[in-house]
């Protein structure tokens, strides 16, 4: 399956693919590369440099270099077309060589920004939980709670937002305006936009119902999206429970939340599909 925007951002990849390792593949110590998985390898090594026939017939040509994800170490794995027809491209996984994911794990392959071919594997729970929050999300929520609403400040701001880069300690984040979030709260009546009947509590700071602001298209993607993501239409007023669900719920429940908000934000329909948004949230169901 093709890497989505989320994966490219998380892994700093140019192109990538993933799939579930079957029990048979683990038992046979070989993964048959299909679709984009195969194309990535072919584009990287060029078809003339891939061994046709079994490994033993040309061990040096069969052996290929990879970088192992997480450890960033160089490993060698055998890659061949076992049959002259070149219809099957097989990667031989090996515990001895450092890469033999178990059946049920999600294995992935991508080309990184340094033009190195990377392989890795994670259990499905970890794969579905990668990088749930925007950078500085908690600080953003705290800044909203510490902001005392001022009518003139709120109503004079641009609802379209602006892109302001913040560079600290070698990383780039983007400024978020707490007054925009407060304006969204006012428009929602300080209620949860998933369900206005969701109970919350009264904030000691504002004496208003406590709600939290969530960027529907996460701010982490600002670097690849041209318009400001910190804009009124992209903000959602949520009860704390629904906000946590956007980050921590299982895929099926998270998709229901995405679809709910998508139907209410009709202005997004010309820009994104539900499948696009599922990709932003790492909510792509993995096929066997």
- When the domains are counted, the total is 2
Order of helices and strands: HEHEHEHEEEEEHHHEEHEEHHH
Low-confidence segments:
none
Strand content: 15-25%
Write down the overall geometry. elongated
Topology, number of strands: 12
Mean pLDDT: 92
From the N-terminal CA to the C-terminal CA, the straight-line distance is 10 Å
Helix content bin: 25-40%
Largest sheet, described in full? 8 strands, mixed
Tally of contiguous helical segments: 11
Summing up helix and strand content along with how strands pair, one would put the structural category as alpha+beta
Radius of gyration: 23 Å
Description:
The model has no long low-confidence stretch (mean pLDDT about 90). It is elongated and about 75 Å long. Strands 1, 2, 3, 4, 5, 6, 7 and 8 form an eight-stranded mixed beta sheet that branches. A two-stranded antiparallel ribbon has the order 9-10. It folds into two domains: about 5-130, DNA-binding pseudobarrel domain (At1g16640 B3 domain), CATH 2.40.330.10; about 135-280, no CATH class. It contains eleven helices and twelve strands. It is of the alpha+beta class. The chain has helices at about 5-10, 25-30, 35-45, 60, 125-130, 135-145, 150-155, 180-190, 240-250, 250-265, 275-280; strands spanning about 15-20, 30-35, 50, 65-70, 75-80, 90, 105-110, 115-120, 165-170, 170-175, 210-215, 235-240.
